[in-house]
Specification:
Layout (H helix, E strand, L loop, with lengths): L17 H4 L15 E4 L7 E7 L17 H5 L3 E5 L4 H5 L9 H16 L5 E11 L1 H11 L1 H4 L4 E5 L8 H4 L1 H10 L5 H5 L3 H12 L24 H4 L7 E6 L9 H5 L3 H11 L3 H10 L5 H24 L4 E6 L16 H4 L6 H7 L5 H17 L12 E5 L4 E4 L3 H4 L4
Parallel strand pairs: 2-3, 2-4, 4-5, 5-6, 6-7, 7-8
Antiparallel strand pairs: 1-3, 8-9
Amino acid sequence: MREATAFGPTAPQHPYPAAIGELLGSVAIPGDDILSVNVWAPRGAAGAPVVLWIHGGALERGTAALSLYDGARFARAGVVFASINYRLGSEGFSVLDGAPSNLGLLDAAAGLEWVHREIAAFGGDPSQITLMGESAGGAIVAGLLARADSRALVARAIIESGPLAAQTPSKAGRVTAQLAKRLGIAPDRASFLGVSPDQLLNARREQASGSSPIGGAPGFQFAIDEDSLPRSPHVVIPEIDVPLLIGSNTDEYRLWFTPDALAGIGRLKLLLARSALRIPARAVAAYRRAFPGASTGEIFGQLATDVMLRAPLTRVARARRAPTYVYEFAWPSPIRDLRAAHALELGFVFDRLDDPETTRLAGAEAPQRLADEMHRAWISFIMTGDPGWPAYGPEHTTRVFDAESSTGPQRRTEALDLLP
C-alpha cells in the first residue's frame, strides 16, 4: 500500500540544450524509484479499452509527468489511459560487458505486464491494450511489438515518428564506448557502477555538445540481443498481425535545426551526408522536385529525416498484411519557421492546445478543429482498430492532417523510393 496521488521521480537527465530547450520542456522530480505507472480512468469504467503511453526524448530525456501527457481527455472519451517511465541514457541503453542490454526497453516491457495484470482494477479491459508512443517512445512501442512475450499482451499499436531499427551491439555500443573513454574507464558493468548518475550525464553532455539526432555524436539505440530483442523491429513488424497506426510529420528535421543552422548547410555537407547515408544523386534531384524552392539545408534535413523515419515506416506499411493506417502531419506552425516539425502533432493528439508545452511549438492560435479531428481518430483506433480512413494497402492510402485534411495516395513516393 502506498500513496499514489502524484507523479513519481523522473529518470536522471539534463534539460534540452540551447534552442531546442526553448521549444521542449523538462520536468525534474527527485528520487530513485523512477519505474512508476500513472492511470486516468473514466468514472465507473468497466471493460473499457486501454492505451499505454510511452514518452519520447531520444532515449535519454523525457518523462510521463510532462503536462502535455495528461490523459484526462482520453479518459473522458471512455479510455483508460496509462503512462510509464523507463530508465534513460547510460542507465537504460548502455552496451556493457557483464550487463543486460536494452534495460529501458525491459522496463517498458515490465510496465506493459503491470498494466495487463492490474488494469482491470481501474475498469480497463486487459485484452484491449493499445501501445502508443512518439519518437523514442514510438521506438519503444516498436521494440515491444518485436518481443513475442510483450506482443502477446497488445491488441493494437500507434507509432508516431518513431525509429524502427535496432543495431548490432557494436554499432549501438558506440555511444557507450566513447563515454567510457571520456570517463577513463572500461565499458563494463563494474566500471560504470562506480560512476554517479551526475558524472554520466555530464560526460554525455560534453560528448553530445553541438550535435543533433541526425548528425554528430552517436546517440542511444536498441541493440540486437538474444535475451531482450533478438530481431530488429523493422524486420518483425511486417510479419505480425497487430493493427498499426503509424506516421510522421512533413518537416521533422526543423525541430533540431534552427533556420540559421539550415542556412549554413551548403552543397559540401549535403554531398558528405549523401556519401555517409549512401543516397544516390537522383534521390537528391527527386527531393528538389518534391520541394521546389527548398534550400540545400532543407533538402539535407528532409533527406536525413526521411532516411531515419519516413522511409522505414513506409517500407513496413507496404510489407504488412495486417491492418495498417498511415498518416502524415502537415500543419505548419508559425513558431520559428518550424512548419510541421517533429513532436508538433502531440498537442493535437492529446487535444491539449492550451498546454504550455503545445503553445511553445504551435503558438496560441493552433486550430482546435484539427485537434478535435486527430484526437477523435486516435480514440477511434484505440476503441475499434479503425481511425476513420482506409488502410494503407496497394493504393498507399494516407491521411494528411492539415488545416484542411485529406485522404489519398501517399505523397512524394518518387523521392522516397530512391532512398536506401
